[in-house]
Recover the amino acids of this structure.
């Protein structure tokens, strides 16, 4: 049986997506929601926290929670999260399409990014389709000294799940760069970009726990569907 706060969360998401609760309007207060759903305040707070985490509402101190634009997905900049994990967290109806899988033969720049020779680099190109629209192009490159085998099934499911679960490796940290570029011919071939003149690219160098560089990736996003979020804390001097 589904937990009460998840049932409330699902109901509020349905009302927001159906515009029963429009963008830029306030949700009922916590007290009103406890009466409406016949539950405790703690349960309501859990549901509201999940709505906030997934980008449906913004909490305003002293006022309550306002509904924000759900047509943009909140992608965390900090942390290392697989697309499968993120899709589950955001409750996305998504599909992964493997466009290309094999070894690099000519791209010297990617070899330099991974500090290795060309015959040791896997190239994986995947399109992420969300709600019927192709809006993310992931271009991943792996050093096959750490990742010796990749298959289409692995790439359609989760490469990180395979690396950690089957290879027993521990992913440690990543260095990230976010840039805005003009779409390439490849972007336009694999994504639904009609009418768009820019694309947001997150470039990652990903390292294992032992500090060895094993992955370079470019995750290319259609700009209208995403906001990239981070958490920062001011440290007093």
């Amino acid at each position: 049986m589904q937990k009460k706060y998840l049932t409330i969360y699902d109901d509020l998401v349905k009302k927001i997506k159906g515009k029963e609760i429009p963008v830029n309007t306030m949700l009922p207060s916590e007290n009103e929601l406890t009466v409406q759903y016949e539950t405790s305040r703690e349960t309501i707070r859990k549901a509201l926290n999940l709505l906030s985490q997934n980008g449906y509402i913004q909490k305003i101190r002293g006022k309550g929670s306002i509904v924000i634009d759900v047509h943009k997905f909140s992608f965390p900049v900090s942390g290392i999260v697989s697309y499968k994990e993120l899709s589950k967290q955001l409750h996305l109806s998504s599909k992964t399409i493997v466009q290309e899988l094999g070894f690099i033969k000519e791209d010297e720049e990617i070899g330099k990014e991974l500090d290795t020779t060309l015959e040791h680099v896997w190239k994986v190109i995947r399109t992420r389709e969300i709600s019927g629209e192709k809006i993310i192009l992931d271009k991943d490159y792996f050093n096959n000294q750490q990742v010796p085998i990749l298959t289409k099934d692995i790439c359609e499911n989760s490469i990180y799940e395979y690396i950690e679960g089957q290879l027993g490796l521990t992913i440690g940290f990543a260095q990230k760069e976010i840039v805005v570029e003009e779409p390439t011919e490849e972007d336009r071939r694999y994504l639904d970009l009609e009418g768009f003149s820019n694309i947001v690219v997150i470039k990652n160098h990903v390292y294992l726990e032992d500090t060895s560089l094993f992955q370079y990736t470019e995750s290319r996003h259609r700009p209208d569907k995403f906001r990239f979020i981070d958490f920062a804390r001011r440290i007093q001097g």
Notes: DSSP finds eight helices and ten strands in the chain. The mean pLDDT is 87. Residues 207 and 213 are 4 Å apart (CA to CA). The longest helix spans residues 4-17.
